[in-house]
Write a structure and sequence with these properties.
This protein is mainly alpha-helical. The chain has helices at residues 14-24, 28-43, 57-66, 72-85, 87-102; strands at residues 2-3, 10-11. A two-stranded antiparallel ribbon has the order 1-2.
């Protein structure tokens, strides 16, 4: 780990970043979903919980997960809520209901 230009918060080197994230979220597929959701939030203007230092939103999201600045449970809930509000999810659910009611 290295320090950010005299700041107190640690910043994990990029090559060790995914390994550090997998210590908090053991499923790599879930990690990808949660990190992409957080990166999307950051791109829409959410406040970063680590110093961005010119990094891309995806790297900042992984840093936040690795340093336990964001809760995986909160990210899961926002991800699930997004799926619930999604038109595609609603359409998928409707098609499944129609399919199973016909059979």
């Amino acid at each position: 780990m290295k320090e950010n230009n005299g700041q107190e918060e640690a910043f994990i080197e990029n090559r060790a970043l995914v390994s550090a994230c997998l210590e908090n979220i053991s499923d790599p597929f879930l990690l990808v979903l949660l990190a992409s959701k957080r990166a999307q939030e950051l791109s829409y203007g959410a406040q970063a919980m680590v110093s961005p230092e010119g990094h891309k939103d995806s790297v900042i999201a992984l840093q936040e997960i690795a340093l336990k600045k964001v809760s995986p449970d909160v990210l899961k809930e926002t991800l699930i809520e997004g799926f619930r509000n999604s038109r595609m999810f609603s359409l998928f659910l409707l098609l499944n209901i129609l399919f199973f009611s016909i059979c």
